[in-house]
Request: fold
Amino acid sequence: MVGLALGLTGGGGSLFAVPLLIYVLNVDPQSAITISLAAVTTMALFGSIEASLTKMVEWRACLIFAVGGIICAPLGIYIANGLSEKLLVMGFAGLMVFIAVSMWYRSIKRSDQAAVVRVNYGPVIEGAGAICQLEHNQSLRLSAPCSLALMFCGCATGVLSGLFGVGGGFLIVPALTFITQLNIHRAVASSLLIICLIGISGMSAAFYLGRSISLDITGLFILGGLIGMLIGRLIASHVSTLHLQKVFSLFIFIIGLTSLLMNI
Reply:
């Protein structure tokens, strides 16, 4: 289900992982977050390999963004370890509601960014007014303000990734398209590598701080996610992007609101 959602809509599919693990498989919240992080990281790894072959990844921006995330992901894990299970679930549920509303709004106002995975990695189109400007060879001009902005966004993504086990693609893609002149296609391709690097940092911190997960559940969950993502990508071109995004955001909103009300 998580992989299918990722393959169909391209972002936010990991938001289903934690509720499914908690309420369906009866996994405790901290373990569910760690398993979700492992699954997201693995799926992003496969996606980033595919994206790098298209030569659409902006490597320098990725590394700067990821450095902020790598530094701050352990902070998210540390904060999560200090929270009660109830607060952790409520925080995650609140995040789901916020993302659902944001996705619904983007599907209406920013229909060009409604889907992330299903983009066609085509020619680069320059934007204007961003902090990070493009050179004539289409590489970013990494000034000090540009680097600081990338690192700050990376840090925010890292905290959320460690805290709730989400990939952060719903933050990374809008951030890259806002602070850089990268178009949506290159932003998506670059976000996959960033998610992978930040996820590895978060998982390392989780294991260092003593979290343990079931290898059987984790392995099967990742395998199912990869199969679902492949199926989703195969059928994605045959369905409406905007309708999918709206239905997807509605499901996220319902699950998030229900989880929030159950824990108040």
